[in-house]
Amino acid sequence: MATPQSTRQQSPYGSWRSPVTADAIVAGVVGLSQIQLDGDDIYWVEGRPAEAGRNVIVRRRPDGSISDVTPREYNARTRVHEYGGGAYLVRDGVVWFTNFKDQRLYRQDSGRAPVAITPAQDIRHADIVFDARHQRLIAVREDHTTDMPQAVNTIVSLDPIGKIPAKTLVQANDFYSSPRVSPSGTHLSWLTWNHPNMPWDATELWVADLTPDGLRALRKVAGGEGESIFQPTWSPDGMLYFVSDRSNWWNLYRWRGPTVEAVAEVTAELGTAQWTFGMSTYAFESERRIVCQVRSQGVTRLAIIDPQAPRLKPVDMPFTAFSPYIQARAGSAYVIAGSPTDPMAVVAVNLETGRVDVLRRSAERVVDPTYISVPEAIEFPTEGDVTAHAFFYPPVNPEFTAPAGELPPLIVYVHGGPTSAVSNALDISDQFWTTRGFAYLVVNYGGSTGFGREYRQRLNGLWGVVDVDDSVNGARYLIEHGRVDGNRVAITGGSAGGYTVLRALTSTDFFKAGASHFGISDLEVFHSDTHKFESMYDQSLLGRWPEDREIYRERSAIHSVDRITAPVILFQGLEDKIVPPNQAELIVAALRKKGLPVAYLPFEGEQHGFRIAKNIKRSLEGELYFYSKVFGFPLPDPIEPVPIENLKQPAGTT
User: Fold this and answer.
1) Coil, helix or strand for 138?
2) Is residue 320 domain-resident?
3) Residue 259 bridge partners (DSSP)
4) Which of 363, 391, 565, 615 places its Cα 20 to 30 Å from the Cα of 26?
């Protein structure tokens, strides 16, 4: 029950005592992904901060019992493309999975310990499927043992018990994904692309006859320059479906002989950026019913399509955000979904009655609903007479009120990618800030997914410009409407979002503090150091290398440190292979040399994105401590201090 306004404690924004503690967040939260069905059983993967970030395959029986499949000493996570995904396959109770530590593929029969079926070499696998007709596995392979300058990606067949060496089925291109066997077992489809494209820029869909010896009659079905194809899927009656953005929107199509036809044309997205393997945004419940996720204006809904009479029929559900994992069978769909008041959860949906059963929540309720800040979808003008998009979370805490006339400080959150997006699903980490009296703005800047190809391509050649402009203009919109304090605006983000943080601090004096989580400070060094998957991503975002080297230098924070006027805190995993630690170390050293305010928290054992509970806690509390010192408000509870070099204390603080 909310506290009456007259009895609320008065305290400055930022200093409110909150029940959403860092301990509560890391203790009760798991990541959910990769749903699979096997008979009557449902499987998914849980990422557990409390277990050092271990990925665990979990099974739910028809009686509702849930148990771990992955033994404690294993971690079901692949490093193909470094981002992984598609790390396991289950069929008839047998599980095959990639173990993170050694990247070997393991077979795990029911009730038995896992047995390695690939050699102990630097070879990785993902996107595993079963070829029943030929009794073999088919997977994407990434080989790091060759003398080539970069890893070699192929599609291979594998013996399910590891007695026969792997055989290459498709090779020669830079990247492959989504091998899928037709219901008859006579055809294989897959996606492929080459540098400098990313899968959301240009991919090709191929089909071949599948034989005991390999493939024959290979032919391209769709795709090429200017077209991104996502999730090829064979229908139960043997027709090949796929998502394409040829109309500007990722819509559903099918291949009929030599022709491709649209299944449902809508000004909305049925696909997403393929950062990981194993994604799915639609599934066949039967020959006559496709269940799909449809994203429009930052909100995702579930819908049904009849392939014979194509139109979208919305499914009435209390969810507005979905992870790109969906499976369906016998009148039910299985999704990972959430809403502004519900965290993401594995959910079963009865397509006949509309009944929704929550099978597993990503977070048990750690806060009373009266503390939850419900986001407002906002649109605001930005450069080029374009409208940009964001979600605004006002500060909410039923126990506190701010002094009369005070406006809240604002944190602008910039998502990573940059070709990605944020949803409006309940994220307890966001509520960590809003329950303490911060306003929080999450920006789907130009370049984000979910708003069509043209919006996504706004960032092409303008990374470090469009994302900064949209972040600034989103904050200005709130300031002009009297929602936040324009003198206390911070910017935070991770990975590509961390780059935007550093770029914003060197290209504008708008922000008064910045927090970069494993962000890029030197684009030239990043171009040389990063992994194969993203090694030419910068050429669409910035310009050709080395011809446009000056753009790389001009948009790198490391070369404009003297323009920074706001304090900066940096967080970095020391085992990060995507944004290596030298990116943080370079900018920290430069800031120290200039005598500018800086704090740095490196984390042993962390890679790209923090997975270990104690480090997640430290980064949350460290960022809060940093803001308290920069903006000069007291903290209601003690927090482990963060050393901040060269910081002048605001007047009235100690």
Assistant:
1) strand
2) yes
3) 256
4) 391
CA distances from 16 to 7, 12, 375, 628 (A): 15, 7, 20, 12
Averaged pLDDT, 253-279 = 95
State pLDDT tens for residues 323-334.
999 999 999 999
Q: What DSSP letter does each residue of 555-587 carry, written as one string?
A: T-GGG-GGG--S-EEEEEETT-SSS-THHHHHH
Question: Contact, 421 vs 448, CB < 8 A?
Answer: yes
Reading phi first (left if > 0) and then psi (alpha if -120 to 50, else beta), residue 584 is in: alpha
Q: What is the extent of the structural domain holding 559?
A: 5-21+367-631
Cβ-contact 408, 484 below 8 angstroms:
yes
* CATH code where residue 205 lies: 2.120.10.30
Q: How many CB atoms lie within 10 A of CB 196?
A: 16
For 152-192, the pLDDT digits (tens) are 999 999 999 999 999 999 999 999 999 999 999 999 999 99
Q: Give the pLDDT band of residue 1 (cuts 50, 70, 90).
A: very low
Q: Are residues 460 and 505 in the same domain?
A: yes
243 plus 309 within the same structural domain: no
Interval 580-588 mean pLDDT: 93
Total residue count of the chain as it appears in this document: 654
pLDDT at 15 over 80: yes
pTM of the complete model: 0.94
Peptide bond into 418 cis (omega under 30): yes
> 180 and 192: one domain?
yes
Ranges of beta strands (E only) in 257-341 are: 259-264, 282-286, 289-296, 299-305, 312-314, 321-329, 332-339
Residue 273 within a domain:
yes
pLDDT tens per residue across span 86-132: 999 999 999 999 999 999 999 999 999 999 999 999 999 999 999 99
Count of domains observed in the chain: 3
